[in-house]
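Provenance and format

Records in this collection were gathered into a single text stream. Each protein contributes a sequence line and a token line. The two records reproduced below are adjacent in the stream.
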Amino acid sequence: MAGPSQSEIDEAIANYEDPYLHKNLFELNAVKSLRCENGNLELEIKMPYACEGIHGAMQQILSTHLDYLDGVDSVHIDIQTEIIAHKVQNNLKSLENVKNIIAVASGKGGVGKSTSAVNLALSLAREGATVGILDADIYGPSVGMMLGIAEGTRPKTQEQKFFVPIDVQGLQVMSMAFLVTDETPMVWRGPMVSGALLQLLTQTKWNDLDYLVVDLPPGTGDIQLTLSQKVPVTGAIIVTTPQDIALLDCKKGIEMFRKVNIPVFGVIENMSVHICSSCGHQEPLFGEGGGAQIAQNYETQLLGQMPLHQTIREHMDAGTPTVIAEPDSEVALMYQDIGRKVGAELATKAKNYANAFPEIVFSKD
């Protein structure tokens, strides 16, 4: 029996639509090789964002479509990930060994920004990406504790000028907390804080990161301004709660990033509903619908609505975030979904060509 035609194979593959980018694999330029010989069909796919969690479903759906074709006896599908450096603000060059920087910010404190940043970074890593996280909250660094890094841990140095990030739970981690003690207050003015951020960022020997998540301090101050002017940021995420005062500050955060030409990938709404640990009753203690309304008003997306649940706090205090402690739980799967949404949104941005052009220096010689 003759094998299927090329058009039949292409049509079967095109029937699969990516659930996050809403395009077929040809539109995503994800089909890298396709061979069909003697009834054996081999398909190689490279996805533009980290999504290992849905690879199994992709293979099953595509195999089902292709198995129905006359003349196909076996189907082998290989799915990999190919993440590139995407365009950043003001045509800045990408940081060495870091393809994309994702800033996680909030207009005010106490909304679960660091919890979101840590679980987002872990989710992206679980989806198959190489991920780092930088704790840029100089005054109140907490990422180290949330990841279970013991107090007093110090990064190694390389060539007497680079910090080597600490590897923990699949992440490359750097924080000001690794350079001071828990009892050391950071009584610094704005310029010193901004300088510390740049030093931590540029003098850390990151190892070929697909994504670097930067956990910013709350507000719209010196660190945020320094980040937007001197650091190549691919996009930002705003964290809020449903409270009116938090939503007001959330708007300010979105406006700030837009003024400095950094796209906002979306909004994470924490503490959306309180879930009783005894009976499971859900109640929106802080209001409802605020995050969705903000996302709609600013033409961005609501990435997720995370519950106010006791286990989330317990996991963070224990240094084992929910994505690690209970990877199959509803909360962990919600974070995984947020990670894929962020990766997919980032993948829609143009490639960063700034690194391809040599720097031109004028000299009187």
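Adjacent record:
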Amino acid sequence: MRIRLRLLSVAGAALALLMTSGAVAAALDANGLVAAADAIRFPTEAFQIQVKVTTAGRSGPEVHEYQVLQKGHENSVVRTLSPASEKGQVMLLKGADLWVFMPQVSQPVRLPLSQRLTGQVANGDLARANFAGDYNATLVKEEVIDGKPCAQLELTAARKGVTYQRVLYWVETATRRPVKVEFYTVSKRLMKSGVYSDFKDMGGVLRPSRLTLTDALRKGEQSVLEYTGLKKREIPDKVFSKEFLRKLQD
């Protein structure tokens, strides 16, 4: 009887270890998919890129243009190029802190990543566009989208102050390309959805040159982000500092 109990105990421990190992492996695989899709969307090296945002709404189309400089996941500068009324505004992301510098305003203003920048685009959509650094991923299910097997991943915030509290993310399993995404509020209400498309060679990798964001709360409102002019480049650390950006506005 004692031998049988010992065998059951050993078998139970082995089963628990196997389940734990499987859960860890699944978590690593899900997070690995997110990191791989991030590397397809944007380079892991320092780079600059132009982003044109065209928003369709009840008042007619609006166009904004930005230049983004990014180094790693913790440092970025977003310069507003147009419209003329907003030209000269600069956002600085340093770690988890986001600041905006505006012409004729002496002190920078701190902003949340979740605040709307224009249309369906939040500050964090441009200033901190990676998912792997801000979220923990779990595999929800596998499904076929447009004939391509995809993994549906649930992303939950890994820290405070992220752009979105919950994200559903679809990644093509064979290529690791991002396919579509849904953004949710804290109460799990769908805010907007996005589709990645028009893959082009940018920096030696086929990347989505277009992200279409559709508002889930206001029917007919949509923003299209078009990415062009991607260049990998050396960017000095001093660029990502309040002192440097103040000098640009002098």
